[in-house]
Each structure stands twice: as C-alpha cells, then as structure tokens.
Specification:
Elements: E1 2-5, E2 12-15, E3 18-21, E4 24-27, E5 44-50, E6 55-62, E7 70-76, E8 78-85, E9 96-102, E10 108-111, E11 115-121, E12 126-132, E13 141-143, E14 161-162, H1 164-167
Parallel strand pairs: 6-14
Antiparallel strand pairs: 1-2, 2-10, 3-4, 5-12, 6-11, 6-13, 7-10, 7-12, 8-9, 8-11
C-alpha cells in the first residue's frame, strides 16, 4: 500500500496494491499491519448509494464522545471526497483536502476524528463504502452546510443535488463543537 500524507494532519490517501490477471484482480482494502498510521479499531462498515451525478453528501461528522474516524472508498462510479478540519485549536482549522475516489483508481481516504466528511458524485450510480471506528449515534450526528463560506469548498458545480437535511445544516461557526 502506498500511503500519502495530506496538508491536514492525520488525513491520509491510501493506494492499495492491485494484483490482476486474465481472471480479474485482487487487493487488500485494509490491513492493520500495513497501515500503522491508522491507529483505530473499526467497529462498523457502512455503504451509501447515490443515483445521480452532481449529488453532494455532507459535510457530516459526529460529536464526541461518539466521534468517528473513517476509511472510505468508492466501489462503483466516482466521487470527489472531502475532509474538512473542524478542530478549533488546529492550525488548519476550516481547511479542506479532496481526492478523487473511483472504482477505477481504487484509492481510499482515511479521515480521523475531528474532521467533517463530504463527497460529490462525479458519475451516476455511485456506491461508497467505509469503515468507522465508532458506532452511529443519532444524538451526536451533525452536519455543516455544504456551502459554508468560511470553509469555501470549491465543489466545481453550480446546482448540486442536496438532501433537505444537508440544505438546512448549520454554518460551522454556529455548531457547538
């Protein structure tokens, strides 16, 4: 596995080694032994499906004590995946990084606790799978407005498809972190 650090401490891009032949291919999607930088125990696997290109999901996170670290990959279609630093005491507070995840490139992103997560679908019929190191908790679930001007994500799209929940989310400065 090739592991690349980003400008946000702890956010990693992971490129698994893919072994292919005439039958198809094989890869390890996670190995605790090969990724010692990911110091967490995953307890839940999740999968989402987005039907249409131009769909934004996020910016989502869970508040402590139910905060989650996530290891994400796109197994069908393609997304631009975003990690947003929401740690108020961090030097990179409100900054973001993105990476294209697709079924073709097989890249993954590790997002530690203390970060928001979002993605934009680049194709129709997108499936994203991810591991989380804490269980889902509706009581601790939060959203930040995808178009928050203090974060200023360049989505590269003028009229995205956004859920009612995400369109009513708070600005980061309104969220009690």
């Amino acid at each position: 596995m090739i592991i690349t650090e980003t400008k946000l401490e702890g956010v990693l891009i992971i490129e698994p080694q893919v072994f292919g032949d005439a039958r198809g291919w094989f890869m390890e999607t996670y190995s605790k032994k090969k990724t010692p930088q990911i110091d967490c125990d995953f307890v839940q696997d999740n999968q989402s499906f987005s039907a249409q290109k131009g769909t934004i999901r996020g910016i989502h996170f869970q508040k402590p004590p139910m905060a989650q670290a996530k290891l994400l990959r796109c197994t069908r279609g393609a997304v631009m995946d975003f990690a947003v630093d929401i740690r108020p005491d961090s030097e990179t507070y409100r900054q973001w990084v993105c990476v294209e995840l697709s079924e073709e490139n097989k890249k993954q992103i590790f997002i530690p606790r203390g970060f928001g997560h979002a993605f934009l679908t680049l194709t129709d019929d997108v499936e994203v799978q991810y591991k989380a190191d804490n269980y889902y908790s509706a009581e601790h679930d939060c959203s930040i407005l995808w178009s928050d001007p203090d974060i200023d994500i360049d989505w590269g799209i003028d009229d995205p498809i956004v859920s009612d929940r995400d369109s009513r989310a708070q600005l980061l400065k309104e969220v009690d972190l």
